[in-house]
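# step 3/5: fold
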Amino acid sequence: MDRPLLSLRSTLVFLLALLTGAAASGLTAVAGEGVARSLLAGLAAAGLAVPFFNRLIAAEDSAVQPSAAVGAGRGEGESNG
């Protein structure tokens, strides 16, 4: 049991989706809709936010690594001139 239940990325995705759903639900309630419609709007927003944030937050495997070829061939003190 050394592993956490969810990875840090999954936890962040679910937290952002929860906050999105809560904001949508709150704004719908303030707009004058009933409790049932507010909850449905919040659940719909949270459901759509999960795949959105999942694609938005890059996975650790596909993270862009800096290229070692940038600046290759030049010494630290050399200049173009």
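# step 4/5: annotate
The two ends are 60 Å apart (CA to CA).
# step 5/5: archive (pending)
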